[in-house]
Design brief:
Elements (H helix, E strand, L loop, with lengths): L8 H18 L5 H9 L11
Amino acid sequence: MLEEYRRDRAALGVYLASCLAAASDELRRVPVSVLQQRFTGWLPRPPRHSF
């Protein structure tokens, strides 16, 4: 998926977040934090800047 969305990482994040929302509705017994890690936790994040 990273290759497919390499030019639009924001769209990848939105797509995966929508999958997370659907899964959290269907998998009510799984903690949201676990689902979040599985669906969006592996996305590369830009470095944080200290100001």
